[in-house]
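Review form for a predicted model. The reviewer records the input and the model, then writes brief findings.
Reviewer: anonymous (R2)
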Amino acid sequence: MVKTAYFGLLYVSFLFPLEFVVKPYLQNATPNSIYILWETDSNSDTRVEWGTSTFLGNITSGTALYNSGNSQIHTVLLNGLDPGNRYYYRAVTSNLSSEIYDFITPSDPSSESSLKIIAMSDMQKDWSNWDKYDEIIHEGIIDYLTDEYSDDLPEELQMILIAGDLVDTGSNYTHWTDHFFSPSAPLFAHVPLYPVLGNHEANTNYYFKYFNLPENGSAGYEEHWWFTDNSNLRVIGLDSNWDFQLDVQLNWLEDVLTDACYNPQIDFVFAQLHHPYKSELWIDGNTDYTGEVITLMEAFTTECGKPSIHFFGHTHGYSRGQSRDHEHLWVNVATAGGNIDSWGEYAQADYPEFTVSQDEWGFVMVEVEAGDDPGFHMKRISRGNEHEFRDNELRDEIHIRLHNEMPNTPVGIYPVGSGIDPDMLILEANSFQDSDDDEIMAAHFRLYENCDTASTPTYDEFINRENWYYYENTQESIELTSLSISSLLNGNSVYCWQVRYRDSSLGWSEWSEPLTFQTGESQYTANLLQNPGAENGTDYWMVHEGYLESLEAYECDGVEPHSGEYYFSVGGICNSAGYSEASQSIDVIEYADCINEGLTQAHFGGYLSNWGGSDHPEMQMIFLDESHNEIESSPILDTYNSSWTFLSNSQLMPEETAYIQILLMGTRYAGNDNDSYFDDLFVKIFRDESCMNSQIIGDLNQDEILNILDIIIMVNIILEGYDYQLQADMDEDGSVNILDIITLVNIILGI
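Model under review:
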């Protein structure tokens, strides 16, 4: 009976030989240990033969667990290894053996060894490009390493980071075996991989069975967030999926960052999570929770003086940006196989944080330097898109140093003194200078009233040297050492301004010493809008659709006003509508002669913002005739910026214009609130003296005489709540009130 059973097993084994379902791959490497995993279609026998040469000589057993059907995932932990040493191994299950592979253990941190990292994401199968991930692995990563360095994979690459969406459907077993592991086998057998969960994994058990990551996350969430150190780098893995957007993860992250801050062996921190806070190619994919992660990393970077990155995916295209005030990079490492989110395909936005966005396949490589001059050099390697093939083309790069010398403090040149034209102002500073020969990356200008630099700036403009958006560099011809400001300033007023410069290693100079100047007479009117900053609630504004709210700072979890005590929310956050619209009409009939001669220009604008970069505030100027019929409209001013952003535009008023309608619009793209914010809005008219001189301020019945009839009309304007009229604004303060009546009476009486 025994012999019969034995021969029966041999017969079954002969007919159905044991096979690898997933070939060996590496995980969770330390200077003294590493995990080796593989999957077979049956059998629990788990061994790794290993050694410092191909003769091997050591055997370590491990464990196996069932995965799908009879298949079993085998796990072996090799301990007692030497740091920075090469080892050879093969996986053995019963009579099945893999080929011999090699790996190199991470160096001891004290050795100050450099390392290379590949970061990528979203390799779920593009059903229109079946083999794209296979191409990324073989013709992309492996060929790139071979061509640029050598074919010794363990020597040239130390870590592989994957920011989620490893497969198309996490619950589909073959997506793991055939779509993810099979193409990756030649790479993962030599270099340990460190993934995080994306939305496509759907928190499936397959993910947790296949990966053995550091178990140093919060209790009960060890497999969802973790960290590992390699040389002078700390890598943090996070879970940004909806069910795990928890305070416990943020608290853990803060503790891990604090530890890295005080660890003298850690120079840099790289975090990876799946969802973006902002994404230019697909704004509907934005997640506010990632913004909270960024806030913690920005604080770490600034307080500890250690640069950082957060890698993400979800949006299928590459982006690289940087926090304005911190040495922190935002890097989308997609797409390594998934279908591209192309320009023009979805709702998209030009965010000021980003320098470049590209709708291409590819991966990111980071060379981390240790020793006396630590730094990292990040490169985007592209495989192109369906319209243009790129064979591992370098498409973007940035080099960040730990010990960066900040740029020299700039010196303001102009304007200074008195009599400065307020209608066309150019701020000009000296040339960029940097002691370690970095190039200029950005400039930041601020303009203040009355030189109170502790107050909110009247004008605050941040300008990057490059902004690649929708295939074009929108900053191509920009001069970073000067800035033009058109018709923003008031006449006969005192201002001061400052500037700072940023170098290509993300270092900011100190602010320049404030330069004070006084403007002369303006040819623009005072602001024609009434209640332009929500200080009087929603008075003078008409709601056409949805909601208009006048909000105090942080009311209903909102934001701070740009200035004053209140700001507008068009769409609402106390009450919310998906789309909202409000307007104010301004009577400009008194300018009819100038308008019909083509001599009158209207200038409008203000400060716009939103909460997290998703919702969409818009502002437009519409010209109406006496019957309130639309004649023409201006371009729309809009932003997706989550900080207050000044926007303005000028347009020649068309003939027959009797009213200017200012239209405020807010559209919700994410969340439950419509976070479309407005503050300090304005409409001004350029006064051509050739046709304005004949118009007497206060002559409301246009009989060229100032008398009691004009006073009666002004009283009626105030009592009846008529639209703002420039000729009634005797003191040019942007409103008509009792002070204007007193001024008119004094003029008539000769006082």
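Findings: The longest helix spans residues 132-148.
Further findings: Residues 144 and 238 are 28 Å apart (CA to CA).
Recommendation: see findings above.
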